[in-house]
């Protein structure tokens, strides 16, 4: 895997048309940048790669359509993004058998969902309901799926819960390219 520090950021013009379409209307305003093009070009490579992993996985399970404005992206110290939802994401996740609320909520969040049946790179959605405002969504990838198998549950608890290990995008990338049934 490449050293993420050494990689130059990509430019909007270098993206495949599919990826530009996927980000269209979601990046403008990120860190004060006007337009998706300028916002994307301002991202560091780790953030660009993390967004590609998350958006690709979300598109693959037909959840990217719920992502509105992206507020933050990170690719080191975990792989995830903060965003506003454009539709009833809670209702959608609640109705899907591959997601559960059990053990998904953290102390500082209002609620959440964890993807079941995936041993690696499983989704973990969290949301916050501020007193005066719209729900704030966060999604990140757990390296070890807490509902993938008994082994990955133990690995998740040890590494990600108790040891506070947060894998970067270079560790997550191989697992995001594996089909869910191939885990």
> How many whole angstroms does the radius of gyration measure?
16 Å
Strand content: 15-25%
Order of helices and strands: HHHEEHEEEEHH
Largest sheet: 6 strands, antiparallel
**How many individual β-strands?**
6
Uncertain segments are none
Distance linking N and C termini: 19 Å
Report strand order across the widest sheet. 1-2-6-5-4-3
What is the total domain count? 1
Q: What is the SS-derived class?
A: alpha+beta
Helical stretch count?
6
User: What is the residue-mean pLDDT, rounded to a whole number?
Assistant: 90
* Overall form: globular
Mind explaining what this structure looks like?
This protein is of the alpha+beta class and 183 residues long. The protein has one domain (15-176). Helices cover 32% and strands 21% of the residues. It has six helices and six strands; from the N terminus they run αααββαββββαα. It has helices at 17-23, 35-42, 45-60, 89-94, 150-162, 169-176; strands at 67-74, 80-85, 99-100, 111-115, 120-128, 136-144. Strands 1-2-6-5-4-3 form a six-stranded antiparallel sheet. A hairpin with a 4-residue loop joins strand 4 and strand 5 (120-128). Helix 3 runs parallel beside helix 6 (169-176). The protein is globular. 35% of the residues are buried. The mean pLDDT is 90.
């Amino acid at each position: 895997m490449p050293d993420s520090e050494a990689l130059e950021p990509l430019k909007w013009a270098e993206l495949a048309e599919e990826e530009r379409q996927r980000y269209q209307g979601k990046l403008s305003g990120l860190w004060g940048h006007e337009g998706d093009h300028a916002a994307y070009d301002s991202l560091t490579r780790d953030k660009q790669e993390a967004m590609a992993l998350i958006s690709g996985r979300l598109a693959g399970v037909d959840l990217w359509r719920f992502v509105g404005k992206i507020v933050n992206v990170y690719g080191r110290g975990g792989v995830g993004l903060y965003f506003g939802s454009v539709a009833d994401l809670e209702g959608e996740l609640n109705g899907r058998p591959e997601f559960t609320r059990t053990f998904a909520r953290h102390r500082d969040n209002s609620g959440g969902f964890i993807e079941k049946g995936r041993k690696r790179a499983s989704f973990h959605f969290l949301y916050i309901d501020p007193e005066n405002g719209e729900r704030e969504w966060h999604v990140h990838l757990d390296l070890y799926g807490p509902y993938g198998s008994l082994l990955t549950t133990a690995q998740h608890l040890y590494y990600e819960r108790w040891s506070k290990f947060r894998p970067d995008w270079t560790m997550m990338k191989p697992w995001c390219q594996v089909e869910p049934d191939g885990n």
